[in-house]
Amino acid sequence: MPPQTITQKILAAHCGRDSVAPGEFVNVTLDLLVGNDITAPIAIEQFRRIGADHVFDRDRIVLVPDHSTPNKDINSAQQCLAMRSFAREQHLSRYFEVGRMGIEHALIPEQGLVTAGDCVIGADSHTCTYGALGAFATGVGSTDLAAAMATGETWLRVPESVKFVFSGERQPWVGGKDLILYTIGRIGVSGALYRAMEFTGTAIRALPMADRLTMCNMAIEAGGKNGIIEPDDITRAYLDGRAQRPGVFVTNDPDAEYVAVHEFDCAEIEPQVAFPHLPENARPISEVGEVRIDQAIIGSCTNGRLEDLRIAAQVLRGRKVHPDVRLVVIPATQQVYREALHEGLIDIFLEAEAAVSTPTCGPCLGGHMGVLAEGERAIATTNRNFVGRMGHPKSEVYLSGPAVAAASAVLGRIAGPAELGITPGNAAERRAGRP
Amino acid sequence: MTIKGRAHKYGDHVNTDVIIPARYLNVSDADELAAHCMEDLDPEFVKRVQPGDVLIGGEDFGCGSSREHAPIAIKASGVSAVIARSFARIFFRNAINIGLPVLVSAEAAAEIKAGDELEIDLAAGTIKDLTRGTSYQAQPFPDFLQQIIAAGGLIPYTRRKLGIGAG
Questions:
Q1: Chain B contact for A52, CB < 8 A?
Q2: Do A386 and B159 count as a contact with CB atoms less than 8 A apart?
Q3: pLDDT (tens digit per residue) in A85-108
Q4: How many separate domains does chain B show?
Q5: What are the pLDDT digits (tens) for B114-152?
Q6: Rounded to whole angstroms, what are the CA distances from A187 to A144, A263, A281?
Q7: CATH at residue B43
Q8: In terms of domains, do A384 and A410 share one?
Q9: Which of A 378-407 lie inside 8 A of B, CB atoms?
Q10: In which domain, by residue range, is A292 found?
C-alpha cells in the first residue's frame, strides 16, 4: 500500500478503501454537516427540490444562526425563521438558538461535536478550522450541503498535501494568527489552491489548541481545501471529556508524499499585520509604519476564543481605548462569554471603554455590530480584508492577532503591545488579565 | 450548447465579497442578488451586462466565502459562462452544482479583451474570440464531474442517486 498523508487516510477510511491517491474523485460518508443562517436557507430550498422527506441523520446536522444574529433586519429574521422551521420539522438535535449559540467554528469544537478522524463538510468556507483536531473538514456551498443532508455523503477530489514545518520558539506576542498570516504572506492567497495544508514541526507540537484552530481556520485564505494537524497529546487533552463521539487518531505514514514542503523558523516571525485588500499582504509589526485606525474588532471564528480574550485583556487592563477609536469585543460563544465574565475579562474591556457584544459573526463580513463608513479603517482579528468586507467599499481592514488589535485600539494606530511596554505574562496571569 | 456574448474582463482573485457583498446576503432570491452582482468591483456591471455575456477572470476566481449567492447572482445577471485561469474550489463546485458553466483556460483568460465577442461550444469546451479571430480549448472536465453536468446539476444527480423520479 502506498504511504499516505493523514488527509488521504481519513478520506480513505470514509469511502471504505485502504488508500486513496491525490487527484482521485471519491464519494465519502460524512460524520458532521454544518450550515448557518446565510447558507442554510438556500440549502433547505435545494433539499426540497431533491424531494427527500427527511434528513439522513437528525444528530449529524449542525445549524447555527450566527451570521446576522441577533436578527439585524427583517430579511435576516426571515432567513433565520426558515432555518429554525426546518430544524424543528426535521427534529434536528444540533440546532443552536440565539442565547445558546456561538460562531459555528468556535462552538462546534467547544461543544465536542467534532472529533479526531472525522470527515466534515460545512456550508461555510471556514469549516476547515476543525483540521486542528486531526479531522478532515472543508467548506462547500449550499447545494452540496443539501445533497449531503439527503444522502449523508459528498464527492471530493483527494487533495495533494503541502507541509509547513515550523521550528524554533515563538517570539513574545506571536500566536497562531501570526503564524498563519506569515504563511499566507509567503505563499500567497492561491498558494495552496485545492491542497491540504498540513502544519507540523516542533513549534506546532508546542502550540496550544486555540492557536491551532486559528491556523487551520485560515487555510482557506491560501486557497487550501483543508488545514490539518496530526493529533497528539494536546489534541487528546482538548478532546477528553468534551468529544461526544470517540475519535480516531490518524497519523501520517513516514514516507507520505507532499507536493511542497515549506520550513519556517519561528525566531524570525514577528507579530503580523495583513494590509488591505488581501490576507497575503502580511507585514511584520516593525514594518507597519504609521497607520491610524477608527475601529478595532476582537472576535470571530478566527480569534474569538477565551485564550484570545485573555491576551486582549492583558493588553487592555488598566488602559483606555484611544478617544478616536471604537473597540468592539465579541466573545465567540456563550460559554466563552460566561467564562470571560467570570475571569473578570469583560470588566477589563468595559473599564477600557470597549463595546462588548453577544456572539455573532457580525462585523467580520460587514453584516452588523461594527460596519465601516467610507474611508474608515479597522484593525481586526478576523480572517478577510477584501474590498468592502467590513462595510463601505472604500473602507479598509487590516488583519492581526488579538495582541496587536488590542494595543492598536489603545494607541489609535496599528502597533504591537511591545510599544506599551508590556511583556506576555504566564498562563495564570493571562487568565487573570494581568500583565 | 453554444453560447454567444461579449466579454467582461477582471483580474486575479475576484472574491465572492465583491461578486455579491455580504450586505445583500439577507435574501436568497436570485434576481435580487443579481441586481447587486459585482457591485463592489464594478458598479456599472449590472447596467452593462446583456444575456449571454461571459465573465473573464484571472487566477483564483471566486475565492473567499462559500456563499452560493455568488454564482447564483452571476447566473441570474444573464452571464452564460465564466472563463478563468483558475477557480477557487468552493466557487467551482457551486457553479457546477447549480449549472453555471465554468471553463479553465489560461490562454483565453489572458488574451481575450473586455468587449470581445465570444462564441463558446460548451460540449466541446471550445472558446472562439470572434473579434480577434482566435480560438482556445478549455481544460476538459474529469469524467466524474461530467456526470453531474450531464444530469443537469447536483440536485437532479442526487435525485437519481436516491431513486427519486423527476418531480
A1: yes
A2: no
A3: 999 999 999 999 999 999 999 999
A4: 1
A5: 999 999 999 899 999 999 999 999 999 888 898 998 898
A6: 29, 12, 11
A7: 3.20.19.10
A8: yes
A9: 384, 386-389, 393
A10: 274-431
